[in-house]
Amino acid sequence: MIKKVILLAIFILFSATAYGYWHMSTHGWLYISLNGLGTVTNGQKYENIKNAKISLLTHDGKLLAKGKSDNKYGVVYMAHPEIGYCVEEASKTTDITATRQSWKDCYKEQSKWLIDWVRQVRYLDVVFGACRLKKIPVVVSESADPWWLWWVPHPHIGGMPITYFTMSLYFDVVNCLEMRPY
Length: 182
Fold this sequence. Notes:
- By secondary structure, the chain is of the alpha+beta class.
- It has helices at residues 2-26, 86-90, 96-117, and strands at residues 28-41, 44-48, 53-57, 63-69, 76-80, 84-85, 123-128, 131-137, 141-144, 163-172, 177-179.
């Protein structure tokens, strides 16, 4: 009997770990930082660029995805080809419960969609103000969530493990130039 309990415990532990690894491998999150050097505000050298439109491209210029930064904070949101922007989708209702569920549903779809193409990104086109920059080389950093090893399926303790992708770009907004910070 003890053997069966131990085997069952090992099976459950292995299954949870395997499921966590699968989820991390099939769901991603992308953070794009568009930093603009212009006028120094509050002692900060760079500020998030607001109202920017971006296109993410492959090595041969094929469009992978589009996104935009918001007007308030300069946070970049990606547009799912069928759902659109999760922020806009979630804001269509005033019901808090419906908004939360709409956001969760959209995020779930977007995280599955994103993992399929994000590793192919090599270039970015960006438009902000009167500035248009084409085919800027980008590096996508990838960080696998270590939670798949010991994740807890509860949203307030850690939630589901995912793979994180980041891109940080710097621009001289006055002269419409891409910059490489050192």
